[in-house]
Backbone:
């Protein structure tokens, strides 16, 4: 560090727009003073970062959040948006049964974007990264017409096999860890112009994926796993198709929390729809051999059945997921290009 | 594969828009029939991919390209845009002295985007990935107002130390591998409304980074390395600042190719400006110990000097890079938020 480079942030650092501060000024600000955790062997500031991959493999996933499509800055603070962008990716790492090791971030935004918005997003990315024990090791910032955050997460399997979507077998039990329906309820509240109850709106703004539950499930023998980002039924359909099985969800095992019942009543909505088709909570859903001891916090919510003649699994057209033995109207899958 | 899933592309696959085809339909199309190379242990289709990291470390970098900021679809084909997006990231891996192992791609685009544009970009990403011996192992597609491609590249150091920007020492020689100024000349041609000469326009459309030269330089003892993406002087300034040295470029060693001289004469431009400040060719610049045997194709173009009292290297304000011993007007750095 040179004498002319102050160690702390000054109050003027976040004034103005990115168009005034410039790309390198912003990068300097959001990198300054961050401590990198152990997996980061070489952090930001070079052509690329170097991250530990102790068992000789690295798990990698990428997801992009776009303003007005995935978030609104009048509904969420920049820090909440940053947390959510990190969480969506870290949950994908957990869903492979892996421990996260690093995040990289590519951010595009209009020149008029306040610097404080971008430092807020960076703070949120860092805060969520820290809850998962990792650092933001690299990134890119550029101009665009619309604010967009593409995050890549890396992870380590620590000598375990990855838990894919393809390993569910007839006879397995289906289990869930974490909340479903809360983010959807929060989004419904915000869409009606309300800002409370805080607990559901907060679930939309910042999901709380159970990161540690992914590796725990892998160690407990999970045969397939996914994070619930598009909706429980839609994501279970990914497992059912990849594993060539039918998954039957037992609705009685999916308690509707009182709070969601209250919100649904106030909005005239069906809370069960939120649980079965609401995305963005990033719970983990996994299948385990029948009789396996489920790790703490996992709840049995269904069974895995053979794909019978009655349920032809075609390309994308069939109903590989049932609720109480019957197809559930629509699978409620979220397609970012559907209207 | 099920009987209802055709093995080959039909002619109707690329008709219509992504809004009609949907997110999952597109992913299925761009993944289908791709062979993954050896480093890909688990390819696309799950929550995350798994890639080999044989020495227990992974090199990672991310870069985003935005339509109208980085490319125009009336100047480049979708395939050229895809190649360029991949090349920019693969060059960063090479600049660490690493071998690329995988690409991940996050793509955002308007609902009206033709499917053929997106499959063209995917084809280009795959084509460039193949020149570097890697696959596209994962990705995400979502809606946005503007076409944007964020690529993450991973790489392996194969037990070597990373070649950072911070290792240049006084007395080292500066060497260059690959073209500089060609992409800038091509961009200048396009900006005047011309479409030829093809060789410079092609350099803008698809750079040809010397990927293998990165690991070769590392093995030959390179002390610092960077890929020239923002402009030679601007990128050398990153090395000079990180290494706390002054770099002197010897202009006589930088031949102006006849073709660039011709183009410059036709446009009334100074070709030397293109060589010294033009970005996007993704040549590699590296410093080597004096007397080191430079690997094939590297050309000595300057020297590394101690930072003297006459050249105070402040925060960002000084001139750590000289041309023939003197500051070169502006350092020509490309800032994506500068106008």
Residues:
């Amino acid at each position: 560090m040179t004498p002319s480079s102050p160690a702390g942030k000054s109050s003027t650092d976040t004034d103005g727009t990115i168009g005034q501060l410039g790309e390198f000024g912003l990068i300097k600000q959001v990198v300054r003073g961050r401590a990198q955790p152990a997996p980061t062997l070489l952090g930001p500031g070079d052509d690329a970062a170097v991250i530990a991959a102790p068992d000789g493999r690295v798990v990698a996933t990428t997801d992009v959040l776009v303003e007005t499509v995935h978030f609104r800055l009048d509904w969420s603070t920049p820090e909440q948006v940053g947390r959510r962008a990190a969480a969506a990716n870290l949950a994908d790492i957990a869903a492979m049964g892996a421990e996260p090791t690093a995040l990289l971030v590519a951010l595009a935004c209009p020149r008029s974007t306040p610097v404080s918005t971008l430092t807020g997003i960076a703070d949120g990315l860092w805060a969520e990264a820290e809850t998962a024990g990792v650092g933001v090791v690299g990134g890119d910032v550029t101009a665009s017409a619309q604010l967009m955050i593409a995050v890549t997460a890396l992870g380590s399997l620590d000598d375990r096999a990855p838990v894919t979507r393809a390993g569910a077998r007839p006879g397995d039990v289906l289990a869930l860890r974490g909340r479903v329906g809360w983010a959807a309820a929060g989004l419904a509240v915000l869409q009606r112009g309300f800002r409370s109850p805080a607990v559901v709106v907060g679930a939309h703004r910042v999901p709380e994926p159970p990161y540690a539950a992914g590796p725990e499930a892998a160690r407990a023998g999970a045969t397939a796993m996914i994070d619930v980002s598009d909706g429980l039924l839609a994501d279970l359909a990914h497992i059912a198709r990849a594993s060539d099985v039918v998954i039957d969800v037992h609705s009685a095992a999916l308690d509707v929390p009182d709070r969601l019942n209250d919100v649904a009543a106030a909005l005239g909505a069906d809370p069960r729809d939120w649980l079965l088709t609401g995305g963005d909570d990033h719970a983990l859903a996994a299948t385990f051999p029948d009789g396996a001891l489920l790790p703490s916090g996992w709840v049995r919510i269904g069974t895995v059945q053979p794909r019978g003649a009655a349920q032809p699994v075609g390309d994308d057209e069939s109903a590989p997921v049932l609720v109480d033995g019957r197809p559930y109207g629509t699978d409620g899958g979220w397609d970012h290009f559907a209207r």
